[in-house]
Specification:
The chain is mainly beta. It is built from one helix and ten strands; from the N terminus they run ββββββββαββ. It has a four-stranded antiparallel β-sheet with strand order 1-10-3-8. Strands 2-9-4-7 form a four-stranded antiparallel β-sheet, with no helix packed on it. A hairpin with a 5-residue loop joins strand 5 and strand 6. The longest helix is centred in the last third of the chain and has 4 residues.
Length: 122
């Protein structure tokens, strides 16, 4: 796979998972604070909504009937509120990015509406 380049701005969660149809292991990620004058706090996390599961999970309820298990959002943080000073770059290797990309989505969220981070993902 080729290298993915992204400019992320703002504080809205952004999906970074570009491969959804084939299994793939990311080998590295570079995050660079490209804002001219402010540091940025970065959340990088894996997200999964269990409501998209194909298998039906059921349990016996107190009433004796089979009830479907409630579906929930699951989040596992790789980075949580990690501060990147002005011009700083953080490099993550494969051991930090090892996850099942068919099962989880990789998201990034920045701390402020004027935050800016450049990402190189391979």
């Amino acid at each position: 796979m080729s290298i993915i380049y992204k400019n992320i701005t703002g504080n809205t969660a952004t999906d970074l998972n570009v491969l959804r149809e084939i299994e793939y292991t990311y080998s590295s990620m570079s995050l660079c604070n490209s804002h001219a004058s402010d540091s940025v706090n970065v959340d990088l996390y894996l997200y999964r909504n269990t409501s998209s599961d194909d298998d039906k999970r059921r349990v016996i309820g107190e009433d004796g009937n089979w009830n479907e298990i409630e579906r929930v959002d699951v989040i596992y943080y790789i980075l949580k509120a990690v501060k990147l000073p002005i011009g700083a770059t953080l490099l993550l290797d494969e051991s930090s990015l090892s996850f099942d990309n068919l099962y989880y989505q990789l998201y990034i969220k920045l701390s402020a509406s004027d935050s800016a981070v450049d990402i190189i993902l391979k």
